[in-house]
Amino acid sequence: MEAEQRSKVINKAVAVAIMVLLLFAFGGKFILSYLDISFASLRVAGGLLLLLIALQMLQGDLDTPVVEQERDIAITPLALPLLAGPGTLTTVMLLMAESPSPHVSVIVGIIAAMFVTWLILRLANNIDKWIGAEGEVIITQLLGFLLAALAVQIGSEGIKGLFF
């Protein structure tokens, strides 16, 4: 992919991810209420989904499926589910439920995280050359382990909420 096209894809993917995250940040509570899903259940499900992603990272199985030619890769698979996947959506909804009323910190956090993501994606070729293949494996393993710990924490809080 040429540099100009890659830039357009990155910009679109991050913009779509921000919109989806903000939609779930403000509308997620209503969706859960309508479907009669508790936050404890959401924590358990989100923890399990994060754990699955962490296990994929630890096993080195992160390849995304091949996408049809007509489909816009900025939306699928980049924006959804990679940037704004089930774990991220769950986290955003939980943070909104637990934050004070104006929710400014969550909104700023979403935008800041997506800015850092945008920056990393823009610099991905340089970062890849700098850390090399071995560095990628090490970083993926470390982040996978930390994500697994976070997943267990989120899931265990959900289990406590459901049963205790």
UniProtKB/TrEMBL annotation:
Q: Does the keyword Cell membrane apply?
A: yes
Q: Which domain of life is it from?
A: Bacteria
Tell me how this protein sits in the membrane. Answer: Multi-pass membrane protein
GO cellular component terms, A-Z: plasma membrane
List all membrane-crossing ranges: 12-31, 37-58, 78-97, 103-125, 137-156
Please name the Pfam families in this protein's record: MarC (PF01914)
Q: Give its localization.
A: Cell membrane
- Keyword terms, alphabetized: Cell membrane, Membrane, Transmembrane, Transmembrane helix
Indicate the principal place this protein occupies in or around the cell. membrane
Classification via InterPro entries: Multi_antbiot-R_MarC
What family is it from?
Belongs to the UPF0056 (MarC) family.
Q: What is this protein called?
A: UPF0056 membrane protein
Q: What is the organism field in this record? A: Dulcicalothrix desertica PCC 7102
